[in-house]
Amino acid sequence: MSSSDAKKPSLAGLPVFEIAMAISIALMFLIFSIIEPQIMSVRNLSNVFTQASYLVIFACAQSIVILVRGFDLSLGTTVSAISLTTALAMSAGFGLPVTVGILAGLLTGLVIGAFNGFCVAVLEINPFVVTLGTLNILLAISSTITGGFPITDIPDRLTAVLSEGRVLAIPVPILLMICTLVALHLMLKFTVFGRSLYHVGSNPKAARAAGINVRKILLGAYILCSVLIAFGAILMTARTGSGEPNLGGQLTLQTIAAAVIGGMNLRGGEGSIAAPFLGAIFVTILGNGMNLVRIDGFFQEIALGCLIIASLLFDRLRHRRNS
Length: 323
Hints:
This protein is mainly α. The chain has helices at residues 3-6, 16-35, 42-67, 75-90, 98-122, 127-146, 156-162, 172-190, 192-202, 204-209, 214-240, 251-262, 274-292, 297-322; strands at residues 166-167, 170-171. It has 14 helices and 2 strands, in the order αααααααββααααααα. Strands 1-2 form a two-stranded antiparallel sheet.
């Protein structure tokens, strides 16, 4: 397989790395279940996959910008800001319908993505600096809007449909995660925009020489990223039943970890949508297992950081061997 073929988006055939990831997930789950049999319970399994569904969506968002050599360090605070916007629109203060509240959340994500994308694509500011600045702006706005308190008076119908609802016995969050994965896979494989993401991430100069509007692709990548974040944030708002100023929590670190562990190349231009899926499942099972065996949260953060470093080292060694 040529290097160019290796960079094509594909879920078919499952490359060796993705098979290894699936085996690692199964082994980790088996080890945790031996230590704590409760992990194998139907209730816990349902909880794990529901939790993973949210992280998968956020990891997909992060993967889109990683694909074009970027980052979104503002992901966590973007989640919080969108949660507050959605809840505020539907709360007693405004009392707008649920659909309007959802549209308000999606619009907020689009605006944030357009801002990040404009700074990166047009002003050519480093993505790390841009999204770090956005992180602080959104943190200040979220804290100011509610004074740090959650917005709780939102319609029960939001939770009933998007969190507790089921379609053919499948929880709605899991079903929406599957739809997101399929849609992104088809976009990356069959659309001009999807293929252009790989070209721009692999070699921006060559992409520009080939007639690709690099600025437009970068802008589109950051907008798509934030719209996906908005989608996930609305689902999490439905789950908590409130708009939370700290809803994003550690999501930025977790999404980067999931993308990198799953196989996304931080140098851009390489990786499939299977990467955030496998990575998010891995991170979720790791966190769930460590919680059930009562490992302190401090050590969990250390373990996650070590995994990111180990994944980067493995990625470097793998590309050095293939070069």
